[in-house]
């Protein structure tokens, strides 16, 4: 009779030599039963665990990773390596959640040399948990290609993540409970979001547009992120000069293609902003040729002609005005007034000046955001809307004030704004 296939999770264990490994040894000598499907690597201390080991294990098809160390306060090294392990494992778990993997696939436990029974218990429990979760990827409903892509982008960012974890996130706490409290705090959450999650999203976007130019809707689909998030991350990448746009085809391409094959570089070269070859813009730049002091003025004039500042135009300005490109990028990315990404077909500007604020502009902004699904400074996936907020538009008595594609609308309520936006074809 055909037997039903039983899923046996593949587990890789990293055990500290002095406690957990000795506990595992005792467990075996004492003939305690535990699942045999864990391969073991012996480390001198759980503090030696590197996120590279963890993500490489998942990349190589492990369903779970186990780290076993000495009990807190009993690490055999003055560095108290097991506290370092807590910190690193927490960051790895957050990274796993970010790429859609269940963090329960990674477990850190303390087992002393005399706790053979405990070793058998924790491994059995981990095995049961993994059986419940199913095979890596399948259990999370992620196809193998996507899974590989996600893990690889995390791995490419690991040197940076390790540095950030060591320099910014690690805190000298005395107890394990204090560590758990810190890692569950909003302070840590915010730091993780700003320093790691955003960077990872930019990294993923760059990896995708290095393969071929893509639209923001495509990126949003592939990464499972809302279009407003894609727009925010693309903004960050553009401010660092990492990507280029073709607003007419709604495509984004990577600015650099080292080591890419020819066809990829050719496809990226096709992505050009409409401003290239615009005679009026050439004229503006030529007027100030060789005059570095006119940089801000030129940027403003070009932006008023083109609505945004493409990297190619900034390069041209740098050459013609004889200002280093780094300085041009510094100025263009410092002032909020300059845009380094294209605008949507409908540019919405909601005033948030004092007078409009007192008349309810906050509610108006929230309602507009909800309707078009983007936040200030962003553009939606179809390049239809871009949203900006700012100070006084000069019609304070008519507040709250909103501009849609150059047309002023005063005394506007959230309902009225929604009706106007629905009319935008
Ligand atoms: S020596 Fe065991 S955790 Fe450090
Ligand atoms: S404060 Fe809004 S128009 Fe002046």
Structural description of this entry:
The protein has 425 residues and is α/β, with parallel strands linked by helices. The chain folds into 4 domains: 130 residues, Rossmann fold; 85 residues, Winged helix-like DNA-binding domain superfamily/Winged helix DNA-binding domain (Arc Repressor Mutant, subunit A, Orthogonal Bundle); 56 residues, no CATH class; 77 residues, Glutaredoxin (3-Layer(aba) Sandwich), CATH 3.40.30.10. 50% of the residues lie in helices and 12% in strands. The protein has 18 helices and 10 strands. A hairpin with a 2-residue loop joins β9 and β10. The longest helix is centred in the middle third of the chain and has 26 residues. The structure holds FE2/S2 (inorganic) cluster (2 copies).
Compact summary:
By secondary structure, the protein is an alpha/beta fold. The chain has helices spanning 20-29, 51-59, 81-98, 116-133, 144-156, 158-169, 176-183, 186-211, 216-223, 227-239, 262-269, 279-287, 295-306, 311-321, 325-334, 354-358, 361-372, 414-422, and strands spanning 11-16, 38-43, 64-69, 106-110, 243-246, 251-254, 346-351, 385-390, 402-404, 407-409. The chain has four domains: 11-140, Rossmann fold, CATH 3.40.50; 185-269, Arc Repressor Mutant, subunit A (Orthogonal Bundle); 279-334, no CATH class; 346-422, 3-Layer(aba) Sandwich (Glutaredoxin).
């Amino acid at each position: 009779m055909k037997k039903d296939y039983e899923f046996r999770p593949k587990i890789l264990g990293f055990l500290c030599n002095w406690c957990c490994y000795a506990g595992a040894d005792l467990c075996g000598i004492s003939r305690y039963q535990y699942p045999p499907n864990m391969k073991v690597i012996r480390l001198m201390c759980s503090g030696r665990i590197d996120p590279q080991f963890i993500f490489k294990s998942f990349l190589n098809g492990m369903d779970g990773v186990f780290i076993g160390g000495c009990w807190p306060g009993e690490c055999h090294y003055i560095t108290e390596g097991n506290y370092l392990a807590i910190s690193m494992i927490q960051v790895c778990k957050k990274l796993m959640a970010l790429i859609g993997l269940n963090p329960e696939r990674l477990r850190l436990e303390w087992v002393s040399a005399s706790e053979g029974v405990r070793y058998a218990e924790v491994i059995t429990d981990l095995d049961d948990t993994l059986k419940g979760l199913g095979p890596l990827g399948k259990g999370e409903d992620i196809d193998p290609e996507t899974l590989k892509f996600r893990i690889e982008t995390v791995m490419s960012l690991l040197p940076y993540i390790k540095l950030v974890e060591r320099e910014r996130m690690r805190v000298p706490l005395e107890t394990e409970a204090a560590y758990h409290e810190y890692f569950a705090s909003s302070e840590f959450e915010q730091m993780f979001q700003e320093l790691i999650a955003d960077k990872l999203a930019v990294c993923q976007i760059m990896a995708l547009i290095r393969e071929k130019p893509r639209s923001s809707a495509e990126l949003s689909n592939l990464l499972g992120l809302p279009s407003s998030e894609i727009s925010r991350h693309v903004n960050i990448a553009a401010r660092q000069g990492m990507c280029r746009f073709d607003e007419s085809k709604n495509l984004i391409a990577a600015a650099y293609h080292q080591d890419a094959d020819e066809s990829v570089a050719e496809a990226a070269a096709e992505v050009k902003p409409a401003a290239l070859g615009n005679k009026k813009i050439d004229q503006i730049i030529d007027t100030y040729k060789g005059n570095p002091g006119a940089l801000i003025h030129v940027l403003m004039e070009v932006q008023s002609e083109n609505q945004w500042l493409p990297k190619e135009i900034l390069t041209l300005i740098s050459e013609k005005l004889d200002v280093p490109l780094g300085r041009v990028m510094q100025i263009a990315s410092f002032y909020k007034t300059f845009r380094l990404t294209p605008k949507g077909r409908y540019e919405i500007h909601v005033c948030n000046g004092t007078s409009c604020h007192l008349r309810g502009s906050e509610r108006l902004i929230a309602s507009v955001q909800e309707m078009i699904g983007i936040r200030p400074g962003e553009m939606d996936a179809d390049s239809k809307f871009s949203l900006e907020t700012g100070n006084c538009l000069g019609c304070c008595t008519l507040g709250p004030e909103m501009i849609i594609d150059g047309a002023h609308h005063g005394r506007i309520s959230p309902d009225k704004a929604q009706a106007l936006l629905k009319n935008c074809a």
